[in-house]
Write a structure and sequence with these properties.
456 residues, Alpha-Beta Plaits, 2 domains, four-stranded antiparallel sheet, 12 helices, 24% helix, globular, binds phenylalanine
Length: 456
């Protein structure tokens, strides 16, 4: 079975600053009343979390933390003059050029203010993600409780938006994933979902010139089988036209967004998503490096059925990560910069015309500081996501990267060993050895407390 790469973009980060070193009292970590109990060695959640003025009961699935919760509502893409705001405006501008002659209005509606708190039904079931799929696990998502999580992708809103009557839209917002730590991944980032549906008339009449006699053509046929090129039920001519529309929309979009970068090449890579078939990733090559920009495909017909449509529509969908594109567009070297309040960064993006093209100038480069942490654990090894969370919780934005560099099992004493490399680096100053040692010790201490490991 091909397991989708969870979805494709990976993010990273974390941090609830603990007042550590005390050993017996519970440490109050934050404004959400999430506490750490060093005796039970666990995080204790209140019975209810109040988020966006609504109470959510917590349970054994709850794994959010203060740092993550504090991002809700920040909506960087709506903050005037933020690079993600400019990119959002550029997406808006590009998609508003498509006009619907029948409705006398822009074809695409743009929705950028939906709450990131969604149900598992929205995030997974509604778009056909199987019940045992790896992308549902606790180690990949931020759950508020068993049925509620911070959306892992904007695809969570596809069905609701189609049900509300839209047949072409963008949905832009913050998404949350637990993942590796490095300069291009952060546990909160932003996505733009795009969807366009077509009726038989729109698809075939719009392409009359290519197809000649459009009257015989149908989206659905009685004997169509699922294969690599299409879903069961879909005719190949319908799929090919939708594929062409999707690929043209996207290639034209990137020609508009990145006219000055030296895009040498671009390519469509076959992939799989539970909610599209066939599916592709779009990659571009810049200076000899390939960058994955988005995932997309022909929407699974079952998703349209879940949205209340009958067999009279077919559609495409894509999901792109805003940070990655903004990093390429403006030459921003580190994803943490999107969250900085440093005026040295933000002032470079103060301009009224969002199509204005600039290259970010690093204020200065501060040195990295590398510390390894090796530990013995029992027969079960630590889930790296749990370790990343802990490190971010303590080190905050001073953590640039965390890499699992070694892991082995010692059959003699039946213990696992793991070694993580933690790379510290500040965005705005040189860190002292002393300061880093303190944080590193703190991480060791909490690691012992939380996972019961022995530091080697
Ligand atoms: N939701 C997918 C992700 O986050 C992207 C995607 C959207 C793929 C729509 C196909 C269609 O990785």
């Amino acid at each position: 079975m091909i397991i989708l790469k969870r979805f494709y973009f990976r993010p990273i980060f974390y941090h609830y600053r603990t007042n550590t070193t005390t050993t017996t009292t519970k440490t109050k970590l934050n404004t959400f009343n999430i506490e750490y109990d060093p005796i039970k060695q666990s995080i204790i959640y209140p019975q209810e979390l109040n988020l966006n003025n609504k109470n959510y009961s917590t349970d054994s699935w709850t794994n959010v933390n203060e740092n993550i919760l504090s991002r809700i509502g920040l909506n960087l893409h709506q903050q005037k003059n933020h690079p993600l705001y400019h990119l959002t405006n550029r997406l808006r501008k590009y998609f508003y050029q498509f006009y619907d002659q029948k409705k006398l209005s822009p074809k695409f509606s743009i929705i950028d203010n939906l709450s990131p708190i969604v149900t598992t039904e929205q995030n997974f079931d509604s778009i056909c993600i199987p019940i045992n799929h790896v992308s549902r696990t606790k180690s990949m998502n931020y759950y508020i409780n068993q049925n509620t999580l911070l959306r892992a992708h904007t695809s969570a809103h596809q069905v609701d938006l189609i049900r509300s009557g839209l047949n072409a839209f963008l949905c832009i917002g913050d998404v949350y994933r637990r993942d590796d730590i490095d300069p291009t991944h952060y546990p909160v980032f932003h996505q733009c979902e795009g969807v366009q549906l077509f009726t038989k008339e729109e698809l075939f009449i719009g392409n009359k010139n290519v197809l000649g006699d459009k009257d015989n053509l149908e989206i659905f046929g009685p004997n169509e089988q699922r294969d690599a090129t299409k879903q069961e039920g879909h005719t190949l001519e319908a799929v090919k036209l939708v594929e062409a529309s999707l690929k043209k929309t996207i290639t034209d979009l990137f020609k508009t967004l990145l006219p000055n970068t030296s895009i040498l090449n671009s390519r469509w890579v076959d992939t799989t998503f539970p909610f599209t078939h066939p599916s592709w990733e779009y990659e571009i090559e810049i200076d000899g490096k390939w960058y994955e920009l988005l995932g997309c495909g022909i929407m699974e017909h079952r998703v349209l059925e879940n949205s209340g449509l009958n067999k009279d529509h077919i559609g495409w969908a894509f999901g792109l990560g805003l940070e990655r594109i903004a990093m390429i567009m403006y030459g921003i070297p580190d994803i943490r910069l999107f969250w900085t309040n440093d005026s040295g960064f933000l002032s470079q993006f103060v301009f009224d015309d969002s199509t204005h093209s600039i290259q970010y100038k690093p204020i200065s480069i501060y040195p990295q500081c590398i510390n390894d942490l090796s530990m013995w654990m029992g027969k079960t090894k630590i889930d790296p996501s749990d370790f990343y969370d802990l490190v971010r919780a303590i080190g905050g934005d001073l953590i640039e990267q965390v890499i699992l560099i070694d892991e082995f099992y010692n059959p003699k004493n039946q213990r696992y060993s793991q070694t993580y490399r933690i790379i510290y680096r500040s965005m705005d100053r040189t860190l002292t050895k002393n300061e880093i040692n303190m944080i590193h010790k703190d991480i060791e201490y909490h690691c012992k407390q939380q996972f019961g490991v022995e530091i080697r």
